[in-house]
Amino acid sequence: VKTVLRYVAKRLGLMLISLFAISIITFTLMHMTPGNFITIHMGQMQQSGVSATNQAEVAAAQQRLAERYGIGQPLWKQYLTFIVGAVQFKFGNSFKYPHMTVEQIIAQGFPVSVTLAVLSMAVAVLIAVPLGIIAAVKQNTFWDYLAMFLSLIGSALPAFVVGVFLILLFSLKLKLLPTAGWSEPKHVILPVLAMAIESVGGIARYMRSSLVETLRKEYVAAAWARGGTFRTVVLGHALRNSLIPLVTVLGPQLASMLIGVLVIETMFRIPGLGQYFAYAAGSRDYPLIMGSTLFFATVIMLMNLLVDVIYGLLDPRIRYD
Amino acid sequence: MMRAHKLVNAALALVVATGILAGCSMPGQRKATEGNTSSGEQKQQQTQQAGPATGGQFRMFITNPETMDPHRWTWGVHIDRMGVFEAPYRYDQNMNPIPAAAEKAEVSQDGLTWTITFRKGLKWSNGDPLTAKDWEYSMKRVMDPKTWEGGSSSYMDNIGIKGAKDFKYGKTTDPSTVGVVAKDDQTLVITLEKPNPDFLYRLCEPWALPVHKATVEKFGKEWAKPGNMVSNGPFVLKSWTVNAEMILERNPNYAGAFPAKLDSVKLVFSQDYNPSTLMLSYQNNELDFVSLQPGDVDRVKADPELSKQLQIVDTGVYKALPLLASENDLLLKNAKLRQAFAMAIDRKKLAETVSKGTVTPLETLIPPTISDWEKDLKHWSFNPTEAKKLLAEAGYPDGKGLPKLTLLIAHGSTIDPFILGVVDEWKNNLGVEVKLENVEAGIFYEKLGKTNGPDYLGFYDNAWVNPYRSADAYATGGLVQPVHMLPGKALQKYRDINADKNKTPDQKAAEIKALLEQELPAEAKEWDSLLKQADEATDRNKQIELRKKAAKLREDLMVAIPLYTWKRFNMVKPQFKGVEFNPFLNALPTYFNTIYVQK
Known about the structure:
- The structure holds two protein chains of two kinds.
- Chain A starts with a helix and ends in a 7-residue tail after the last helix.
- The relative contact order of chain A is 0.14.
- Helix content of chain A is 78%, strand content 0%.
- Chain A is mostly helical.
- By secondary structure, chain B is an alpha+beta fold.
- In chain B, the strands form seven sheets. In chain B, strands 1, 12, 13, 14, 18 and 19 form a six-stranded antiparallel sheet that branches. In chain B, strands 2-11-10-9 form a four-stranded mixed sheet, with no helix packed on it. In chain B, strands 5-6-8-7 form a four-stranded antiparallel sheet, covered by helices on one side.
- In chain B, strand 7 and strand 8 form a beta hairpin.
- In chain B, helix 12 runs antiparallel to helix 14, helix 18 (488-499) packs antiparallel against helix 19 (505-519) and helix 20 packs antiparallel against helix 21.
- Chain B is globular.
- Chain B starts with a helix and ends with a strand.
- Chains A and B meet through helix 2, helix 3, helix 7 and helix 11 of A and helix 1, helix 9, helix 16, strand 18 and helix 18 of B.
């Protein structure tokens, strides 16, 4: 236990350094990108009869906004303000949603995104593991090829293509499910399926190869020799041991799903953090870009750490150092 | 990624739009706005608008509002005006202003003092009486820098209320200097700096929506949320899941003349301005109204059922190509060159072929659907022979010797086919190859905001719309102002002076005056002077004459190449009647309370 704790502490330390580096990189890229919140906001106001036609007044309004948001201050100063707030988990008010702090946006949107990602993950595993087992047990037969073919198609199709297909099928043809929204349980089904299908392929193939390898082990052969059945040998012995490597893929899969939700959230009009994240860059909402990027980075790194710890616990041969 | 229409939609997210309904074609006739509103016509209008409640829920997508405060410019102000609040005036189905919460508005002989008389017995949604004093409070609140800090106020400076600018920009913190006074519970007196012929239109806009003082003071920033919010419109805010959906319910305490007929309205949101899956939601009966993406138009037209639900709306949004600011003043100094480019585009052909009828060709900077002022303007009709001649006269026969030109656009992954067509037309009819440069919106605005280097010159693609139908606004507003005719380097200097923090406003004004005096070309000076004279004119006929002259000069100068006005393709479920479209706001329903269900 002590070694585990020491390991976790070390990893957390490394994480902080990574986060610091990420914050600097994101900050730099963000400020290198042409245009800022004000040029976009004012540009859009100009396209309508809404903004003043008097250019001096436009400039005055622009300047007011710049002062309010600290745009135009020296970059080091802007970064310092940011980092001082960030360590207290205070990213300030969003530019685009001035009535909300970035923390509030995260608190509101992240649970939605997590729900979506975790449910999709669960569905993906429920489909992929049996597919992998069939393929492994019936290795190099028609069933193997069929299972692998199906999972390959799934991973070859991006979630947004699957999404449209699912809407056409379940909403327009069968009239069973709504096309978009997030107010009732039935709204969850299509986006979760769309995301799950994309992940099935990877998990199933991993499951298959892991199980195939285990099935070749001597103790499995011995179990068969003792007169074991499919249930006792494959499900009882081999599967359990084959699941260990699966844990390593599930962590990163979940992380990539959390990032992937932004496409699906936009498509199905789901009010998750992914949507904010996706559109923050377009509107140059600096606090929201920084806050959501670092937040997602933290979540992903924590997830990877968790996987490594679990992996070690499951397999005593892994050493923490 | 933003598409062509998305960029404009993004713009309209902060804005309002113009135009008129296709089908009911009316010349841009506006009623005299000088206070003499005939009450007989008002009566008729009211009976037409009123009517028994029919129940039902109307569901539509709208751009995500960031707040529901009507005094802070986001999409919330549009939702507020559509039914959560009621302004002193409102638009009839022809987009002319008619009294709403007001009974009448009268203007003094000199055009400076407006006296608004409100209806008796108006109420807030919580039952409190609503009086002129509430309006005085609200109109001062909308100008208060504390209200719109960090964004934009829904009060626009060109409304021209006396003392508004000084209060809005912090020269004074005393709200009593603003020319808005409630004389008694029913009477509000507004003093203007100078006569504003569009003032009744302005009284229909979000800035003129009243807010409930006690609620605002009690809840602060949280006042415009469900449960807290008090409003005066036919609907009230029932629930709001941020970024997802909002329910508006009939206001049982509504005591005005335009009650709701529906039980409720459901608005759904997304951060995407125009999600591509909306039509699927409409077809699956989850939405009752949808604006088609251009790609869906043909499919809908070919469908016997869906085509019956299609209504085409001509909007007041126009697209034009102004000049990129460049250190190379070749295009700026050579009007014939610009004219050659303007005349080398067969707009009608492009509208019919590549754009498949989704746009209406435009040959002047005042669309004919807005006003007949366009009749006096030079029309930049397609004339390849003349275009070639102009090009040769400009010193570049067949485009020989022209530097590389750029057409800057921000269309994301789907480029407007009309724009591709324009580049083709220039190549075929003038022999000039113009480089199409497609950038992201932020980069686009960055490039518009500064003078580019000497090797970067050409045009950019942009759209413009006024919040209401007004010949004056289209003649004086738009993408290009006289100052944009400054040579590139001088324009940059002008911008630098404006942005200089170390200069006082007086210093800036003096420097700018000197700069314009020295650098502005003679024709631009004349244009500027005509606009200013018109602003100051106290005689309305004289003002119109001056503005027409300014518009004519602008057109002759060819400051931006007009391309087309937008059409919107709206789908409405057949059971919903009375949906009126606002051509100045993406052709969305103008108000929710005109909508009813026919069983």
